[in-house]
# Entry
Amino acid sequence: MIASRVSAGAVCLRCRLRLLHQPTPIRRVASDATTALPINEPTDNDVSQRTSQDANQGQSSRSRERSPISWKRLSLRKRRVAGNRLLDEAEVRLDANMLGKPGYAILMKDGGTFERKKLPLFENGASSQSSNNPVTGIEALLDAQREPVTLEEARSNIHDLEPKTDKMLSEKDFRKLQKLLTGGFLNAQLQDYIGWYKSGAGHQLQEPTTDSSAHPEFPWIQKKTPWTPLNSQSQAVEGTNRALQDYIPDTTSPKERLAMHLMHECWGLSTAAQLGETQIQLNDPEFILLMRGSQRFLNTLGKIWLEPDEKMEAFQDQKILRLVTTRLKADSLLRELDETLRNVTRRTFPVILFGSEAPNDTVLEELGRITNSYISKSQTLRRLHVTWIEIKSRAARGLSSLEDTSHIALRLLLTASGSPNTGSTLLSSTVPLAPTARLIEDTTSKGKLGWKDRLARWARYMYPLTSEKSVTGVALPIGKFELPFEPLEKPETLKDDLEFYPDTPFPSHPVKWSQTGRTSTTAHFGHILHSYPPSIPTPRLPDLLAGTDKRVFAPLPPHPLHLTKFETVEASHTPPLVTTKSTLVLRFWPSPSSNPVSNPNRPRGKKAPINAGDTPPAPILELRLAASDSGVQGVESLRAICRTHHTDVMLPSSPVDVRFTQMQYETLLARNSETLAGWQPLLDFLQPARLDLENGKLETPARQRFPIPRRLITTHPFTFLGEQSEEPDDTASPPREPDGLRDTLVSISYDFVGLELHRSATLPYEGHQLTYTSIEAGQGGGRRAEVTLEPLRPATATPSADKDQLREDFLACCSRFVTERSLWS
# Structure
């Protein structure tokens, strides 16, 4: 139990008593260097002589000076002990000089055998008094119990060495305790203590890997390895715990390995300033949230806490965080992570709000990446759960009234399903003796598409391009547009004597919706893309035109340098030739509802579609704000878009295709932009909004109510998110209402569904308006540039001019623009 190098603090009571009462021989060494033999004690005669000499010290100084001084010559002979022999040291003078002085030599002479004095173990009479001495009685009792040390006693002694308060030791104290364990106890005793401690008899053991039940303060942890020092040069020793291989050098003995195992895993001891690592396996939602946004939360913690040699690593395939820090800092980082994950917020909304079924996992993963959230489906697949980390500073900055992450996810799902009240037509030009066309996969337009469309594969229908410089004579196959064709005109304004809404429950506003709607026609140039399954061969052109598969449009503008040749100044043009402006476009959709649909125009007995929500058939609102690089300057316009139609014209033999977009809308009229900006619904929406264009921070409220004329709600059939009803009665036009009711305002709740920043440059082109626009729509809508062409009424044309002729001129202009190879090379 007791080794020769153990300290006094580790010796038991029995052995201490034995050592205390055991007589120890005292070796007396002469202080004089002349002899090493024992010195005789002074006798009584010597004491009396010293006393008489002290009495004679009172004589006068003269008598002391005259008295002769007696000198005692000390013997310079020295004796030394070598083994059991005595050696006498003497000096012998040499005849030669050494270093200018007489030389001497040391001579060792044999002085005989050295006899050691034997002292008795007990003094005389000690045995007779042992019965009356209580200490001697204890010794006799202990001598009578000469038995081996039990394992229980060894456990108690080892357990007493455990530091009770400070688990973070200095390197010196750590190694000192390790040496005490290895030098004071046997291997079997250390091994027995480790097994006893792990059984739960001692302090509760913290295993190297534990489940979340062992971390009640951190419920987001699944497994956690103990903190271990870094030692990149050490190799795993056979029989050593994997978690301790960096803790123990290669030359460690088995007993030292046991001591390190005991100190680290049982007592949880470590050094303070040494770098080490710990690995944490998190639950899936928490780990994914920490990885969102380019690991912004982990990067923030790293900038605050980590030194140059410390780091945090994430292994996404295993959901593991690796912390390389000191022991104290690792605990601090865990507390900071827990503080961050305490702000996790969760919202739920039904799937019926945006479609008939829940999206697949790929779509939800992409949506979570865009919104920095974790989105999962319920067990019934009828609801979606959106989880994100709420930033605490938003409430302090007054941003709690703005839309949260769950609403951003909802509106992205709404817009990805398709715009309501939107139709499309697909046409294609015919080329005589055209070669075989093919679907060529598009690999360069991913960033121009919507977030959901980027997940699919798309291709363009093309003929092999010829080597000619241009292709002429390609007419656009459009006989008549779906909506009326109207050239651009000057925006309408209010008159001073206009009467507003005096007989409505709404307060009197100096604004009014226009009585007549307008239709805009815009030509976009780019590629019409079809879904591209590589395993299916290219369909025939008639089958492609008659198909109902979804298609997308990717704008493809010519290089801006090619557009400079159109800058020709005409004498009749007084305004600037090229005008530039920046516009912030915000869109609103009628708020969807999960209640069954109630269409007022539906005949009795007709059932509503199962996947339809109770969304009113109201128009889409488009708010345009004048902007600059520093911020928003004012309100340009507010449009109520009742209907949108896309006419896609495929030109397989040309570098680009054409999409004609027509919109029927009514405008909210006001005398000036200040009056329009002061309209109460717009004021309620824009005042709390955060529109910081300079720093790219654009946040708005999630919903707003707008008063809409009843005629805009009932002038078109109701469809939910662009899905046509299977019943013919649903698509029939409703009966015309009296004029008094048609102008009645109805308050409709609208959801904000997104915004775009447009920076455009406009110039004339063959009597029409050519616009080059750079569009930034965020991660949901992408970033793109496009060129559009809009028809203008000639200055010499009368208002009653033939619109068919204007349409033919506009189509011919678009055809020449498309087939000009110099623009698209």
